[in-house]
Structure formats: C-alpha cells, structure tokens
Amino acid sequence: MKITKDLYQGSLALLTDFYQLTMAYAYWKSGKAEQEAVFNLFFRKHPFQGGFTLAAGLDYVVDYCKNFKFGSEDIDYLAAMKNQEGELLFDPEFLKYLSNMKFSCDIDAVEEGTVVFPNAPMIRVKGPLIQCQLLETPLLNIFNFQTLIATKAARINLAAKGDPVLEFGLRRAQGIDGALAASRASYIGGCSSTSNVMAGKLFGIPVSGTHAHSWIMSFETEMEAFEAYANAFPDRCIFLVDTYDTITGVKNAIKVGKALRKQGKEMLGIRIDSGDLAYYSNKAREMLDEAGFPDAKIVASNDLDEHIITSLKGQEASINVWGVGTKLVTAFDQPALGAVYKLSAIRIENGTYVPKIKISQQSLKINVPGIHNVKRYYSKGKAVADMIYLEDQEINPKGLVIIDPIDSTRRKRIMPYFYQEEELLQPIFRKGKQVYKSPGLERIRQRAKEQLESFDKTHKRMVNPHLYPVGLEENLHHLRTELVLKAQQLDPKDEK
C-alpha cells in the first residue's frame, strides 16, 4: 500500500524545514551536492522515563523515499521565493537540478517492532550529501511520532497484562494524519483494535465501538435505549451503563441481556466510563455473575494510561477490556521522542570515508562517528546486550568489551562465541532501489510482541526500570574519544 500517496495524492518533497532547502542550495552552490555522506537517526533518552523504546514508522519511510521527487508545482513555488532585497532566492539552475534529482541513497534501518535503545542508529542514510540532508526532516517527523506512540501503546499493553486494549483516540488526536499514524503505531504496540475506521480501511486494523452517552440521552429512558440498541445489534451488545447511575445501568443491561438470551443471543458486556472504576467494576461483576452472566466483559475507559491501569490492577478491579484514547494517541506525558539526525561520516576525494563528530559540553549530545551498525546478543532467547560497532571492524568472537557511550566507567564484557546475535540495521534501499519487502502490519505487530518478550521484565518496569546494557565496541569508543579530543585541540594521550 502506498501510504503517503493514498493520504496526500502527490509529492511530499516540501514537507521539510526551510533550512534544509537553504543548505541544499548552499551545497549545490559550493559543489558539494553530490559528495557522499552518512547520516544516522537516533534518540538520546527513552520516552516516559522507561527502559525500552519500540521502533515504528519504517513503512511510511519506504513509501516516502520511493516517491521522493520535486514536482512541477514544488519547483514553481520555490522559483517564486525572493530574498529581502526582492531578488529571486534560488538560482534557476539549482531548481532545474532539483527537478531532475532522483533518489539514489542507501538506507539501512531497524525493522518496525524492534526494541531499540538510546544512541544506537534506527536509520542510517548513505548517499549524495544534498539528498541525505533533504531527508532529515521527513524521516524525523515519521519515526519520532510513530516510535513514541508505539512505545506508549506497548507500555499500556504491558500494564494490562494480557487484557485487550482498545485504541479510540481519534477525536483527541493531533489532526487527521496524526490520528492515522497513531492508530497504526498503537496496533504495532499491542492494541487489539481501533475506533478509527479510516485506519481500519488503510491498514487492515480491526475496528471496534458500540455507542456513546448521546445514544442513551436521545431516548426517554435508559432501558429504551438499551432495548433499541439490542434490536439493532443483537450479536454485539456492550452497554454503556454510566449515563445516569452506574448501578441502575448495570441492572438495566442485565434485563436486556436476559431478553437477548431468550432470542438465542448473548450480551457481550458493559462499559463504564466514569467514577470509581475499581469500585463500580467489582460491583458490576458481582451483579453480572449473580444474574448468570459470568462471561460478560467489563470494559473501562475514562482517561486511562499505563499508570492508572497498573493502579486498578493492584486494586483487583474486575475489568477485562481497557479503552484508551487521549493519553495514548497524544503521548500525553511526553509529547515528543526527541530523535535526532546527525552526520557521522563523509567521503573524500580518495574514496575513503572520514568519520565526523559533533561535540558538546553535554556528553549526551556527542554523536557516535563513523559508519556503524548494531548487534544484539541473545542467550537462550533472551536479549543480554547491544553493541554499536564500526562495520569494517573485525569482532573477536572470544571476547570483547562494550563501553557505555555516556559513562565510560560502565563496561560489559561479552563472549560472542556463547551467544546468538542479530544485526539490527537491515538493508532497505540500495542506490535508491528498494530491496526490503515489508512483512505487513500483522507480522510487524508480532515482531513487537516477540521482541518485548525477549527482554527481562526488569527492563519493562513502569518505574525505575533496570538499565539494559548498550555500549560502543572498544575500538569505536577509542575513535570517538580521539575525535573529541582532537576537536577540542587536546592531545589524545591526555586521556590517560
């Protein structure tokens, strides 16, 4: 499915920050446009103060890059731009260059549904400098949001401990495209369905929903509303019971449920959307069981998130299904992931790639130089450590040390010979040609489930999660340190 083409019906090349175009022009003007470069997209801290992040958005990236071009309307818009002196901003020859430019980059990326960690590349782009630069904003836009929402969904589903989680945040989402991307990412993160019908159509996500309080209020009595709904949908009745009084609502649902049973139909359950969810769900469970409806589900909603669900689980609330909206699709407690896109290597005239580093007074903001990949090591199916390493570096199978990129005193010895390993960055494009085939949303969702299961439960705690070991291979650590000291005009020997 061509996701962006289906949604927007045209070129998205101008979905970028203006400074990407001014840099592109300056690259072209200085003769650097075709110089080969390598950029990495990564993030620096887990969202939600958690211990893991779940990658999402790759299918969007593939679709964007396949259709990346400057159309005639894009060129016309840029051609009309003027500087402060009223002169044309861009040289017509540059605009001709853009109109003829064909996507030709190599892209490697982690597959959607992969658990990822700070400082390790999620996407690596290699190709002409101008193209790499122009891809920065759209790639960040896609991966930042979908990864954030997939992670939030995974946390909520972990808190639900196997109970179905329904995503119904469309009305509170950040616009149409935000809602669609959020529904998709939520499904990857483990939600069982969405209320978003367009997301159901575009992505094949199961859709769910019954009725709102307005349905009840449109009738003279709650009982009439329940009876009318049962008449319309006798096989899928879940009654919203808190419009007036929750206990009375449950009693009315039971009466209609008994009438349905006489017709050979079965009431599926009730939904509670307000009040003390622990108290009312337990009272409803008692009433339903006593009335002969032990299999009727109790659905809870009302501004839920992973922390409220965890609390309700701790209170032994009788809730079987969780409806989560606003706090999921808006990533309520952290509005952005904060992923960045940094130059890590550039090709010089002799054909070799020179590693590049950005330094900062904050060690967190010093990037990892060179062309690197990530290996994940497993022992008996459980993830034990991730190593960021230079791709041309020979790895000693008998033993190596990985060093935390932020705190060099945190080190872990790994014996690769005893572990299974997985290369996390996979080829997606080669010279602009797609070489990766999406496994489809269901398989992506299954990968997310398998990935999360491969990590110890301590890394998935909601509060104070245990730190999973991720480190630079020793040679990469030394290269990074050397480049930092060189940039600071210090002798590398001073490191000692």
From TrEMBL:
Keyword Hydrolase applies: no
E.C. no: 6.3.4.21
Domain of life: Bacteria
Pathway noted in the entry: Cofactor biosynthesis; NAD(+) biosynthesis; nicotinate D-ribonucleotide from nicotinate: step 1/1
Coiled coil (UniProt feature): none
Post-translational modification: Transiently phosphorylated on a His residue during the reaction cycle. Phosphorylation strongly increases the affinity for substrates and increases the rate of nicotinate D-ribonucleotide production. Dephosphorylation regenerates the low-affinity form of the enzyme, leading to product release.
Gene Ontology molecular function terms on file: nicotinamide phosphoribosyltransferase activity; nicotinate phosphoribosyltransferase activity
Catalytic activity line of the entry: 5-phospho-alpha-D-ribose 1-diphosphate + nicotinate + ATP + H2O = nicotinate beta-D-ribonucleotide + ADP + phosphate + diphosphate
Pfam family name, one: NAPRTase_N
GO CC entries: cytosol
Span of domain Nicotinate phosphoribosyltransferase C-terminal: 373-479
Domain Nicotinate phosphoribosyltransferase N-terminal: 14-144
Residue intervals of the Nicotinate/nicotinamide phosphoribosyltransferase domain: 167-351
TM helices/strands, residue ranges: none
GO biological process: NAD+ biosynthetic process via the salvage pathway
The entry's keywords: Glycosyltransferase, Ligase, Phosphoprotein, Pyridine nucleotide biosynthesis, Transferase
Its biological purpose: Catalyzes the first step in the biosynthesis of NAD from nicotinic acid, the ATP-dependent synthesis of beta-nicotinate D-ribonucleotide from nicotinate and 5-phospho-D-ribose 1-phosphate.
Family to which the UniProt record says this protein belongs: Belongs to the NAPRTase family.
Name this protein carries in UniProt: Nicotinate phosphoribosyltransferase
Originating species: Algoriphagus halophilus
